[in-house]
Amino acid sequence: MFGLDKKDTMLLLLVAALTALAPFLLNPFPEGSALAQFNAGYPDLMQRFVIFGIFAIGFNILFGLTGYLSFGHAAFLGVGSYAAVWMFKLLSMNVLPAIVLAVVMSGLFALLIGYVSLRRSGIYFSILTLAFAQMMFALAYSVLTPITGGETGLQLALDDPRILDGGVETGGNIPVPGLFGMEMRDSVQLELGAWVFTFNFGYYFAAVVMLIAFYIAIRIFRSPFGMMLRAIKANQQRLNYTGLNTRPYTLAAFVISGMYAGLAGALMASMDPLAGAERMFWTASGEVVLMTILGGVGTLIGPILGAGAIKYMENIISKINSDILHNWFAFLPDGLEDLLVTLVYPFIGKGWHLTLGIIFMLVVIFLPGGLVEGGQRVARLFKSKKTDSSAAKPQTEPGE
Amino acid sequence: MDAIILQILNGLDKGSAYALIALGLTLIFGTLGVVNFAHGALFMIGAFCAVTLSRILTLSHVVVDSTKTDFLGRPLEVQVPYVYDIFGEATGAAVIDWAVPLSILFAIPVMLLVGVAMERGLIKYFYKRPHADQILVTFGLAIVLQEIIKYFYGANPIPTPAPAAFTGSFDFGAILGFDPNTIIYPYWRLVYFAFAAVIIGAVFAFLQFTTFGMVVRAGMADRETVGLLGINIDRRFTIMFGLAAAVAGLAGVMYTPINSPNYHMGMDFLVLSFVVVVVGGMGSLPGAVLAGFLLGVLESFASMREVIDLIPGINQVVIYLVAIVILLTRPRGLLGRKGVMED
């Protein structure tokens, strides 16, 4: 189907099913119960899952296939956000032109930065991309304030021109982004017994965009072009010796992944029409690296898993406080309860970055293939119990 | 003329910090071949060594001073640091006043220990892995270290003043024959520059004039041959890692009066220090020092009003701009050896 082989079609359908049913799957606990805080099925967080999923898929096309570690990818996310907000201001609150302009702009920036940065490889490439991103951040924060809004960020205003929406009455409110009459924040709530499920238009729109992006990524992975990128990761020197110029291929991969980042930025601006320079800061670039590594570099599904895992931790773990901990351990004797709470407390709430750092280090040290490799190992464990011969089969390494 | 001298002076203290951190980074890269993204965290830990020592020194117990009374008429309760009991009041006050310079003595063993523990506990397992993995694992370590510091010390900057003797400013212009008060410069920044110069000199002397340093230099040039000669080069490289950590830590200790330490100060410096290392030339110690001072001075020139009026925003980006130009035109950096990480 769609020019994919059976396995990839299954993967695509699986991801499609998971994203379509996410409002149910992420809300397994009834409203008001003690575990309700682990529910992730609210629109804001679900939107972030898919948007950062797109960002990570794009980053993986560069890092996973070619092995070039960009430490400045958030710059393209920022460019995409700014472009989208400007489109909302000048043209229309419809998200489609905003997305198109964002992708084009981030593609242009990626072309420029990639052309310069890709002259070097290895750690020099990382530092070059980092330098460009920091430069863009510093300029967006200070000198380019008329374009970027500086410290306050770029916001919509009542008297924006909005040429195409000119006749539409706004009623004194700043209009919200939408798609042909449907607003991104439109939600339908479904109550089933104690459960409340929210279906948000913005989420489903972003999810459809992510599925398209995911499909394109699968096609790239399976194409001769993807094969060439893998060859560059495996041994660039040998490719050069055979008379191939690798730079057009790496540049293409860089531009594509920059466009993915711009797309993610445009979607972020569509859900909440605000763009700030902090989206381009190098910690934001670090975050997408974390997502991709955590999920599994060079695998198809890995980046989506990693993005979901990190955004879930960021939103859920950071919400747990010491009272909730005391509730959990209430069944224990008092002394033991206090001890456990004191032990666990540094890792939750405001300390969630510590948990993230530790998990990330453990993954890099013991599980370089990320969650996907972890899953494969567990699967192998179960398989080898049935037949020992299957364990001896060579494993296909991701991205090599 | 006076403006130029002032900018050079202004650039020196930041340049000193860059040079010290970049020196440590280069030591680690040159000996162990590891790209250490946690080096900024070591700088930060050094700064918090100073905070810790000044907190230890000011640990107090309550003494009732019956000669005075508070506004309710009760005898006044006075906090008396334990240091006063040990050294007497005058010496005790001086000890607390000099907490930051004293922290050097405290920080050296702590940083050596942290460095060696880091190398033995983690970095050792990453020699054979690709540079990307080294970057990633040390990046994770940096996050963990800075979150630990944040947990114990909070997220706000902690002011740590310099000794009272160094709080004033020094009228530099008066010596050189300019009008008074045209070139004034805080004493502590002069101290920082002198301190950095001493440390850098000490590291170079150590490498140049001791047998240990000679072996390390030989190992940097050709690790395998030195190993074949029956020398335990790994152990020496571990010590060099500790030394690099101590250099970063001392840079942090002395920087606390200039900038109140907070948990993310290391990351702020790290990004720039990497740029410094690249400009100086990967693996070149003199290059790292030269580039550190050069970029520090360049940054302060770029923040002159006249320059900003000419090219808006240049003060924010000048270092990165220089790095990009250097990387594209002279990939091995200013003083880099030919063939070391040049691709």
Write the layout of secondary structure elements.
The complex is a heterodimer of chains A (400) and B (343).
Chain A lengths: L5 H15 L1 H4 L17 H24 L7 H17 L4 H23 L4 H20 L3 H4 L5 E2 L22 E2 L2 E2 L3 E6 L2 E6 H22 L1 H11 L1 H6 L5 H25 L2 E2 L6 H14 L6 H15 L5 H7 L5 H11 L7 H15 L3 H17 L14
Antiparallel strand pairs in A: 1-6, 2-3, 4-5
Helix pairs in contact in A: 1-8, 3-8, 3-11, 3-12, 3-13, 4-5, 4-11, 5-11, 8-9, 12-13
Chain B lengths: L1 H31 L6 H19 L2 E10 L5 E7 H6 L1 H9 L1 H23 L9 H23 L15 E3 H5 L7 E3 H23 L1 H11 L1 H6 L4 H23 L9 H16 L4 H18 L2 H6 L3 H16 L14
Antiparallel strand pairs in B: 1-2, 3-4
Brief digest:
The complex is a heterodimer of chains A (400) and B (343). With 400 residues, chain A is mostly helical.
Shape of chain A: globular
Average pLDDT figure of chain A: 82
User: Which two chains form the greatest contact, residue counts included?
Assistant: A-B, 40 and 37 residues
Number of H- or I-type helical stretches of chain A: 17
Strand content of chain A: 5-15%
**Class based on secondary structure composition and strand pairing of chain A:** mainly alpha
* Helix content bin of chain B: 55-70%
Beta-strand content estimate of chain B:
5-15%
Q: Segments of chain A where pLDDT lies below 50 for 5+ residues?
A: 389-394
Alpha-carbon Rg of chain B, integer: 23 Å
**In the CATH scheme, what's the topology name of the domain at 11-280 in chain A?**
ABC transporter involved in vitamin B12 uptake, BtuC
CATH class of the domain at 11-280 in chain A: Mainly Alpha
Q: How would you name the oligomeric state of the polypeptide chains in this document?
A: heterodimer
Overall geometry of chain B comes to: globular
Given as residue ranges, the uncertain stretches of chain B (5+ residues, pLDDT < 50) are none
Total of DSSP H or I helical runs spanning 4+ residues of chain B? 15
**Beta strands of chain B, count:** 4
Order of helices and strands of chain A: HHHHHHHEEEEEHHHHEHHHHHH
Number of strands of chain A: 6
Helix fraction of chain A by DSSP (H/I, runs of at least 4): 55-70%
- Rounded mean pLDDT of chain B is 83
